[in-house]
Amino acid sequence: MAEFGFNEHHQNEVISYMRFARSKRVLRLKTIDSCFEELKDSRLVEETFTVDEVREMLDGLQVVVRGDVEMELINTAHTNVLLLRQLFSQAEKFYLRLQSDISELENRELLEQVAEFEKTDFKTMDKIIQETSKPKLAPLNEGGVSELLNKEIGRLQEENDKLKARLRTLESQAMSALDEKTKAERALKDLQKVQGEQQLAAKSQEISSLEDTVAALKEDYERSLNVNAASKKDLQENLISAKHELLRVQEQLALAEKELDKKFQQTAAYRNMKEILTKKNEQIKDLRKRLQRYEPSE
User: With 80 as the cut, is the pLDDT of residue 145 above it?
Assistant: First the structure.
């Protein structure tokens, strides 16, 4: 069984299980043989049988054989479960998790190797096993198991020490990172404080500049208002003066017209013109009278 990768102890365990399975197989085959022998002794007592009688005997034999085979298969499956239970229980005591590949149970090559081993070396191994005491499943208080357990504890302790050392290294790195973070936060706060003061000074200067600009604009506006007020007052005064001057000029003009008209009336041309107009008006009146005389109204 070296090709299966077993050590001597496990190889002996496999051989023991195969011997057990072989004994069960032989016992079941004997049971099946006895079923046929019983049929021969109990039913085959006559020389001739009808077809129905043969069919009835075969059907009965089939039921018996089928029941025995089914029972044996079920018993074999349950036996394998008990074997796995023992193996898994021992593995769990050492905190191990065993795994199985069900597909390998139908591996034809491995099955042929097992069959070949059973045919050739099984008898030789039986002799060797018979010379030695039959091994049992090793309990926990045996020397080999204790040694294995101590090795496992030592390995776990070594791994635990490595983890502790790694943890201390990580803690040291974490503390260094925390210090760096604290320094960075302090530097950031100082920088923000300086920037805040600079921004506050810049804003204060900007506000002061804006206040000066507003004051200058206000002063210019007030000056403009004063200038406008003075200009308005001067304009009003000039307007009043102009009105007074206009009235005076109009009055002088009216007097000049009256004076001119008076002077014009005193001239010889005016008197001659007036006399001519008077004569013309009298002539017109006389002509109207004559006309009315010659052309009386109807």
Answer: no
